[in-house]
Specification:
The chain is an all-alpha fold. The protein contains 10 helices and 2 strands. It is 73% helix and 3% strand. It is globular, with a radius of gyration of 18 Å. Pfam families: FCD, GntR.
């Protein structure tokens, strides 16, 4: 089944915003985007409204829409919320996971091992793998609201990486952490799952962004 035009526009526009190809506060020129995304006005508007719900785009009234701004406080608050939410989700995943969830997680690890050598350094692949990992853990939590909020926080976090020019960690560097957390979920050890997610986010560039933002704020004040 092929993707709808609005889904394709949403995915590509989200990617451009996350990678800061469209920088914070820049106005979205709908005519230019329709041409570059090869879509009509209606699917583009649908995509923009979805991104607005995720906090990546803001309404400028009659001027249209712009990429959301990013302040040091935004980076810190986003990190705080994502850390707490994802650790909670990891614990729930260990308690509630099903055999089907474990099949998906094991297939995920196998896919990384099969693709890592040829795809390492491919930014699109690296980001897709990491987002899939967090998505699978959220799905295993059995909480239908987890994925919705995680999508928004993940997009904001990755965008913050590129806006702040903090290098991403590669999947190869995170693979052992992925496996550690998945093993904890397999054993239904919620404390170990939360600890593994805490470790993942602690060494993540997301924390470096938050810390950088606070240092920058301190120098200005």
């Amino acid at each position: 089944m092929s993707k709808r035009k609005s889904d394709e526009a949403y995915g590509e526009l989200r990617r451009r915003i996350m990678l800061a190809e469209l920088p914070p506060n820049s106005l979205l020129d709908e005519k230019t985007l329709q041409q570059s995304l090869d879509c009509g006005r209606t699917p583009l508007r649908e995509a923009i409204l979805r991104l607005a719900q995720e906090g990546l785009v803001t309404s400028m009234g009659r001027r249209g829409y712009a990429v959301a701004g990013a302040t040091p406080e935004d980076l810190q608050r986003g990190y705080e919320l994502r850390r707490e939410l994802e650790c909670f989700i990891a614990g729930l995943a260990a308690e509630r996971r099903t055999p089907q969830d474990m099949d998906r997680l094991d297939a995920f690890l196998a896919k990384i091992e099969a693709e890592m050598e040829s795809c390492e350094g491919n930014v699109a692949w690296e980001l897709a793998i990491d987002e899939e990992f967090h998505s699978l853990i959220a799905r295993a939590s059995g909480n239908q609201f987890a994925q919705r909020y995680l999508d928004s926080l993940y997009g904001l976090s990755v965008r913050s990486l590129y806006v702040s020019q903090v290098p991403i960690t590669f999947v190869r560097e995170e693979f052992d952490t992925y496996r550690l957390l998945i093993d904890a979920v397999r054993r239904r050890d919620s404390a170990a799952a939360r600890a593994a997610m805490t470790a993942h986010l602690t060494v993540s560039p997301i924390k470096a962004i938050a810390q950088k933002g606070l240092r920058d704020k301190a120098r200005v004040s």
